Amino acid sequence: MIIRIFIYLLLLTITLSLTAQNDTLWIGEFEVSTGRAPKLYSETSRVIEVITKKEIQNIPVTSVQELLNYVLNVDIRQRGRHGVQSDIAIRGGSFDQTLILLNGSKINDPQTGHHNLNIPVDLQNIERIEILQGPGARVYGTNAFSGSVNIITTSEDRNQVNIDLSGGNYKYYQIAAGVSYKYKNIFNQLSVSKKASDGHIDNTDFDIFNIFYQNNIDTKHGKFELIFGQNNKKFGANSFYTPKFPNQFEKIKTTFTNAKYSFGKKIKITPSVFWRRGKDKFMLFRTNPPEWYKSHNYHLTDVYGININSHFTTSFGKIALGTEVRTEHILSNKLGEETGKTIPVHGEAEAFYTHVAKRNNAEIFAEYSLFFNKFSLSTGVLVNWNSDYDWMFFPGLDVSYNITRQLRLFGSINKTLRLPTFTDLYYVGPTNIGNPSLKPEQALNYETGIKYFRKTIKAHISAFIRNGSNIIDWVKISDTLKWESKNITELITYGFECSFSYIPENKKNKKSIIRNIGFNYAYLTTHKFACGYISKYALDYLRHKIVLKIDHQIIKRLGMSWALSYNHRNGTYFDFAKNSELSYDPVFLIDSRLYRTSKSWYVYIEATNLLNQTYFEHGNVLMPGRWIIGGVVLKLNL
Questions:
Q1: DSSP 7
Q2: Rounded to an integer, what distance in angstroms lies between the CA atom of residue 384 and that of residue 421?
Q3: Cβ(352)–Cβ(340) below 8 Å
Q4: Is the pLDDT at 2 greater than 50, yes or no?
Q5: pLDDT the model gives residue 479
Q6: Contact 514, 532 (CB under 8 A)
Q7: What does the pLDDT average to over 48-63?
Q8: Nearest to 497 by CA among 544, 559, 564
Q9: What does the longest C-alpha to C-alpha distance in the chain come to?
Q10: Which of 78, 578, 610, 620 has the most CB within a 10 Å radius?
């Protein structure tokens, strides 16, 4: 009943908006990078959610993971708040099927999707986040299976120092500082942050350190960009990966750097080089290990390569061409083939890498876009070669028609893929067995819908079908056996979603009390064909997700934001205390922030899980109750 009421209200709002005589475009018009060539937001034929810097400032969150939790059809399964560890899925996909990018460069970890959100960027560094709903293989390449998230960092011209101090329950604190400085044509930005807590229950303490540097140089012929970031975290992982052994602990260091240069007028060319390193130490027993436990897990993953993208405009449309060559390499004492050698683990006494795996990947992209009167078309293909899987082809087509200037009908059909992670291929543990013979996942996606946008309103309704084959899942025949990774699952996912946002236009003599309102609803259902196997991940998804966000003024410079969410998760988990399989209970959460703004400072107090709900987002991992944090941000001009 609640869902129907929300849908009726949304449709009524859109209908009333259509009757208004207003020929201006949506106030948030800008270019987005969800194609090989940049496009205006209003020109896109796909569902793209954009979170701007202004929106980020007032939302009651402290990390990118928590921020994404409010996005349409994005499923953030947290094992701890404040960015400790989270899995991300879009439109019912798995945590390995979402591609994460930083300024357009991939930062996924081939070891496991559990590390994809180890992002070396704080909220203060972000200009906006673009979320592509649905497949993006022909735009971004492998692993953009069910969606992608592109984090765009800020490059403001302000010479400024920012200081962010906050603290709260469970001995939580955050200290962050950043400086940005532009001299002539050179822009530099450096930020560091540290946050820590004793945790809301035993063995959920954490310590996270970030450092991020960005350099932009505008030259006569083009623009150079260099980014470097490192994310260090260590945390108690109470039941994070298996409830059988709750005393887990993990230490991760993620380093990423990318350099690119954009040049050309008629033909825009952007070559780039990138490198990502992930170092992971996982302890199944933080203290008092049993006699049979011989060693912690150690992994060192390197991803490096080059990318070249180009696009140009002709009298018959836009053409984009590109290529990427990438190598993925891992040293481990668990993942890969045995080498017969021992390589010491840096910083760890009597720990050695004994396994290795490596694969090379090459991608060629081609895209053609045409805008003709009220029609737009974008078609392209990804040609992929992998040293383990040979040649593969993934075409796609997006089309749209402008019924009016504000109302757009759109549709798409795209094929996509996801490569197995090294964990899928090689991991062997007390409860899991990998499979080196796995094939890449593939899916054919169909989508149609309608968009509406004008100066202050943006809305859409869409429906999609994803027909997946060779889906990788961890399965078993009975509860007595170990989980094994297999390509035995075929999944057909059906989805419906709608969203609405309103950002009032403030005039000189009249300002709205409402600063913005956002509402979204998503429904999913999945049909599995897996020959009687019990599935671990494939059927765990959000069947219903509702989010309502409101940011409003109380008095001048004093405002308040609210985020209300309702999640109804499909799937089950095994409760060892009750010795039975349990379904996830629906969860209704309220988060809020009270804030006071000024040109040189920003003060806030926020509460997450305001109703103090007891809930689980993943297995037996208990999420925190009410958590109150207060902080101040200082902005000092240089």
A1: H
A2: 17
A3: no
A4: no
A5: 67
A6: no
A7: 91
A8: 544
A9: 76
A10: 78
